[in-house]
UniProtKB/TrEMBL annotation:
<keyword id="KW-0805">Transcription regulation</keyword>
<keyword id="KW-0059">Arsenical resistance</keyword>
<dbReference type="InterPro" id="IPR001845">
    <property type="entry name" value="HTH_ArsR_DNA-bd_dom"/>
</dbReference>
<dbReference type="GO" id="GO:0046685">
    <property type="term" value="P:response to arsenic-containing substance"/>
</dbReference>
<dbReference type="GO" id="GO:0003677">
    <property type="term" value="F:DNA binding"/>
</dbReference>
<dbReference type="InterPro" id="IPR036388">
    <property type="entry name" value="WH-like_DNA-bd_sf"/>
</dbReference>
<dbReference type="InterPro" id="IPR011991">
    <property type="entry name" value="ArsR-like_HTH"/>
</dbReference>
<protein>
    <submittedName>
        <fullName>ArsR family transcriptional regulator</fullName>
    </submittedName>
</protein>
<keyword id="KW-0238">DNA-binding</keyword>
<feature type="domain" description="HTH arsR-type">
    <location>
        <begin position="141"/>
        <end position="240"/>
    </location>
</feature>
<dbReference type="InterPro" id="IPR036196">
    <property type="entry name" value="Ptyr_pPase_sf"/>
</dbReference>
<dbReference type="Pfam" id="PF01451">
    <property type="entry name" value="LMWPc"/>
</dbReference>
<dbReference type="GO" id="GO:0003700">
    <property type="term" value="F:DNA-binding transcription factor activity"/>
</dbReference>
<dbReference type="Pfam" id="PF01022">
    <property type="entry name" value="HTH_5"/>
</dbReference>
<dbReference type="InterPro" id="IPR036390">
    <property type="entry name" value="WH_DNA-bd_sf"/>
</dbReference>
<dbReference type="InterPro" id="IPR023485">
    <property type="entry name" value="Ptyr_pPase"/>
</dbReference>
<keyword id="KW-0804">Transcription</keyword>
């Protein structure tokens, strides 16, 4: 039973044997008592032994995991529904009412020929889920980008914010002083725009000694990430070709 005070998340894929089952277990491991989580599949089978092994290697508990059908799930009980494959997105998005629907598309490790497919999937799910939890834990009345397309396009419409996003797509990680040097904008203006991008959930950050580094939030919906990648590819002229090295006078 889901507590009325909990934020509840449902992960979906086709078989509920690997991706969504792994996501359920990882989310439960990282989340606290304020969250509830489950998973289901459009054509459920049974847990993949390799998926369970990958979770154990990651230090994630697997007790009680079982494959479940979406027909056994009451969608109205969940605040967020996250599909992990394109098929689940197509089949399940219309079933969601007022829930926030998030589309992630992870390659199926079951059909992969790579020996580390399950380990890689577990690691990538772990990274995305950590960032998702950071967003869900934020106490803010402002809409978040992962469930508000109009807000995504609104915030991307500012030329400076767009340029900084494209820079991060190209370089991966940058600090404030690198943005200031590359855009020739003032530090307060750059910091203000970075704060807005982070507040809306578009950016993640980390602190390393004196500097705070920004990167594109890996928990974004895949269609948003695709738009950013495509824009960076077709409008490379918006991206400065060089950025200052933080170890060479960046303060």
């Amino acid at each position: 039973m889901i507590s009325n005070s909990s934020i509840s998340v449902l992960f979906l894929c086709t078989a509920n044997s690997a991706r969504s089952l792994m996501a359920e277990s990882i989310f439960r491991q990282f989340a606290g008592a304020d969250f509830a989580v489950a998973s289901a599949g459009t054509e459920p089978t049974q847990p993949e032994p390799a998926a369970l092994a990958a979770l154990k290697q990651l230090g994630v508990a697997t007790e009680g995991l079982r494959s479940k059908a979406i027909s056994d799930i009451e969608f109205n009980n969940y605040d967020y529904v996250i599909s992990l494959c394109d098929r689940a997105r197509t089949e399940c998005q219309t079933l969601c009412g007022d829930q926030h629907f998030i589309a992630w598309d992870f390659p199926d490790p079951v059909t992969s020929k790579k020996t580390d497919a399950f380990r890689k999937t577990a690691h990538e799910l772990s990274e995305r889920i950590k960032m998702l939890l950071l967003i869900l834990r934020k106490k803010s009345d402002r809409p978040q980008l992962f469930d508000a397309p109009h807000e995504f396009f609104k915030i991307m419409a500012d030329p400076l914010r767009l340029q900084m996003i494209l820079m991060l797509q190209h370089y991966g990680e940058l600090c404030v002083c690198q943005f200031v040097d590359a855009t020739e904008m003032s530090q307060p203006k750059v910091s203000r725009h970075l704060a807005q991008l982070r507040e809306y959930g578009l950016l993640a950050d980390r602190k390393n000694q004196r500097w705070v580094y920004y990167r594109i939030n890996p928990a974004l919906q895949d269609w948003m990430a695709t738009i950013i990648k495509t824009t960076a590819t077709y409008h490379a002229s918006l991206i400065p070709q060089q950025v200052k090295d933080v170890d060479n006078g960046c303060v």
